[in-house]
Amino acid sequence: MLQEVMEEESPATVNIKNEISVNSLKDVLLSWIEEELKKKGYTVVRDYVVESSGVKHRFDLLAEQEAIPGLKISIGVIFVNSNQRIIDVDVVERYIAWRETLPIDSIVLVTTKNVSPEARELASRYGIDLIVISEDTISKLVMERKGLAKMLEGYYYIKPRIDADYVIKYVEASHKSIFFKKPKVKISNIALVYIPLVVGNIEMSRAGVVAEEIEIVKGKVVVDGIHGYVVTRHNNALAIYEDIGSLVEDISDKAIEALDIVSNEITINISSLGSKLDISDEDLKQILDTLSSKTLVDVYGDIVEFKGLDPHIFTDIDSIVTEYRCEVVKGTPPAEIPGIVKLGINISIPKFEKLLRSLRCELHNLYVIYYPFYIVFLSEVKNGEEHEKLIIIDAITGEEAGDISKVFLDIDTIEYIRRHSLDIQRLNQMKI
């Protein structure tokens, strides 16, 4: 059924919203800054952690350059996204201690928000640079990113099979015990949240059961578009394969390069691989640990063996659509309707495509399909403080989907969903 929808009209007719999530914008800006720093001769590392007095401090980018022999300059870059409309002194104060204690020559805070004069003065006093990216620059960079979106052949979304009223009744019936607690727990808000799933149709070859035979395997790879987790099914609800983790965030560009080498060689000596990559033994060990934990390679003593991707671990979205007779619509979800939230794509599509090709996958096409979930907010007051719990319901099967929760763990994401959720007294406004 999904394939039929995809074949109805060409991808060029798909209406793609001119929206970009905070996380996607962060990725766009950091990629641009990284490119500019590299042009200046800097070596740049993403998600760099500096430890001081047992405390870990994470930088979005760390750039280093040897100005003269023996003198290395380091710049730590942090993307700052405040829930406030302006960056004030409170935001800057968080990083003053970093500037004074960490072995970083310069700390740069990058933001798209306005900065108060007091915050600028405080940052200048402590040697912290503040860079505000202009609207023109953002527009230019986003348009360039949408050029990359040509790799995607289309956007689709699945309409939910159950409505919000059903979800409220289900939660009340299946969680009776918590509603009889004192102080009383109540359902406060609900949102219909669409998660982008990136789906790729692939064909790959691997060793057959019989010696000297090659098996051709066709299948689909499905990852969530926010973190890049493998998407599977558990207890009749969509879930992520937590043991494997993210196939995009966790795997560095150097690890993809290593995969490309190993998949070509099938088996290779560790020292030979390290030599080809030109990295330290410690960095190589970290890469191999990551790849083996995701079952992409095996390490036997000093030998690395290519295992490749098992397409059977991914869920089959087509079968879900067929089994539940879902309605698939070409385009993106109607996020302008109260209570409906569309989460943006955060992962790097070019990086995901590069990873698949390094795994010797012939990629026929890539597309995005938005899958619906209901998120129910429960509130409880304890000792004068309000506590909150989230229950996630698969909007297709009607089952609880707690195993997908890792996608929502980011505080900014939860806050964004909360802001766009509906009070249960206003459910009639959620017109699906």
Automatic annotation (TrEMBL):
Molecular function terms from GO: DNA binding; endonuclease activity
Positions in coiled-coil regions: none
Ranges where the Restriction endonuclease type IV Mrr domain occurs: 32-131
Gene Ontology biological process: DNA restriction-modification system
Alphabetical list of InterPro entries matching this protein: Restrct_endonuc-II-like, Restrct_endonuc_IV_Mrr, tRNA_endonuc-like_dom_sf
Record-given protein name: Restriction endonuclease type IV Mrr domain-containing protein
